[in-house]
Model the fold of this input.
Amino acid sequence: MHYRFVGVEGGDADLDRVANEWRAKGYRLFQVVRKSTYRWVLVFELRAIK
Done:
């Protein structure tokens, strides 16, 4: 599996924006890790090409 870890600072709108950007690149959101109130790490997994 191929994973990308992306740090995000902000609220829900920022998380949605970043998640949509990476989905457009062919990744799916695998996990969300809360670091503090407005700091997150999003883990994306590269989708297999069929």
